[in-house]
């Protein structure tokens, strides 16, 4: 090829970069480019919706896989690529886990207690100790949703307040749902908070995020905070979960192998979800609370919330 022609071709490509998409080593004109599905390996069919793209995991797939029975992990939201190791069925509200999420999943209540103790220490380090004994219990999806009024939200944990009740907690790990729970009596021995319930089968780092979130609800109730709007209370609780994730992912213990590479990636995914959530309660609440904490600090933000029931601005 003539050298002058080669240089000219490169210049044309460089000046029209916005017209091209790359696939491997080759550029494609965007009107011609059709991505390959990361699930079935076929060309994504042309349609007005385009492909389903998970921007964090960079998984691109055919829109049909959202409703054709293709297994999807309920924690990382990745579809199972064809021909790969099967996703694990938790036999609980059609929840499935990919093998990577299953590796660190906490399946039974007693296995969760060391992590609960560590998050107690995290709160103590912020001079926010939770001094009352509040039981932490893992439950199935149906039991969790029985405790909330807004069943349209994606709930993975709840702080049970002002209630005594007998619930079924997960105490044994089985591949089928039979005989894996036993009754547990929630009592109001502190007069306000009777327990923290977390969905069983979440990976360890997501379980920790949920504990840190729900512990904030418990701390505010036990500290005498007046009732606030859902946006405010859920927003500051999301901030506490987000802070715990940041602390864990940046700590020396994390670098020394406390979390596997995948768990750290999953922790970053959890942070990403919190930050970009479109939910008016959890997403907008987090962004407002985070802005207040960044500007005024956690202590002054909490003091203002105690006085006014809202964030400082």
From TrEMBL:
<protein>
    <recommendedName>
        <fullName>Protein DA1-like domain-containing protein</fullName>
    </recommendedName>
</protein>
<keyword id="KW-1133">Transmembrane helix</keyword>
<feature type="domain" description="Protein DA1-like">
    <location>
        <begin position="125"/>
        <end position="308"/>
    </location>
</feature>
<dbReference type="GO" id="GO:0043130">
    <property type="term" value="F:ubiquitin binding"/>
</dbReference>
<dbReference type="InterPro" id="IPR045218">
    <property type="entry name" value="DA1-like"/>
</dbReference>
<keyword id="KW-0472">Membrane</keyword>
<feature type="transmembrane region" description="Helical">
    <location>
        <begin position="192"/>
        <end position="212"/>
    </location>
</feature>
<dbReference type="InterPro" id="IPR022087">
    <property type="entry name" value="DA1-like_dom"/>
</dbReference>
<keyword id="KW-0812">Transmembrane</keyword>
<dbReference type="Pfam" id="PF12315">
    <property type="entry name" value="DA1-like"/>
</dbReference>
């Amino acid at each position: 090829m003539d050298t002058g022609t080669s240089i000219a071709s490169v210049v044309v490509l460089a000046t029209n970069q916005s017209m091209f998409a790359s696939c491997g080593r080759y550029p494609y004109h965007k009107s011609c480019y059709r991505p390959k599905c990361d699930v079935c390996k076929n060309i994504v069919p042309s349609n007005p919706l385009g492909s389903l793209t998970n921007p964090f995991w960079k998984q691109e797939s055919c829109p049909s896989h959202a409703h054709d029975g293709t297994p999807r992990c309920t924690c990382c939201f990745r579809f199972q690529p064809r021909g790969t190791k099967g996703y694990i069925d938790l036999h609980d509200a059609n929840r499935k886990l990919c093998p990577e999420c299953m590796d660190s999943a906490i399946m039974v209540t007693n296995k969760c207690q060391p992590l609960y103790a560590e998050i107690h220490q995290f709160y103590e380090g912020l001079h926010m100790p939770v001094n009352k004994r509040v039981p932490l219990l893992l439950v199935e999806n149906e039991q969790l949703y029985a405790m909330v009024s807004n069943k349209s939200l994606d709930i993975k944990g709840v702080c049970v307040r002002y209630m005594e009740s007998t619930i079924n907690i997960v105490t044994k790990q089985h591949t089928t749902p039979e005989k894996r729970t036993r009754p547990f009596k929630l009592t109001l021995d502190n007069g306000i908070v009777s327990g923290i319930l977390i969905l069983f089968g979440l990976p360890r780092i997501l379980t920790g995020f949920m504990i840190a979130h729900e512990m904030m609800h418990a701390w505010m109730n036990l500290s005498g905070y007046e009732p606030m709007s859902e946006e405010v209370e859920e927003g500051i609780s999301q901030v506490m979960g987000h802070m715990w994730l940041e602390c864990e992912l940046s700590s020396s213990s994390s670098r020394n192998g406390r979390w596997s590479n995948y768990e750290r990636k999953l922790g970053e995914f959890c942070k990403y979800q919190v930050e970009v959530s479109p939910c008016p309660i959890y997403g907008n609440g987090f962004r407002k609370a985070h802005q207040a904490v960044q500007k005024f600090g956690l202590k002054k933000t909490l003091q203002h919330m105690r006085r006014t029931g809202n964030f400082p601005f």
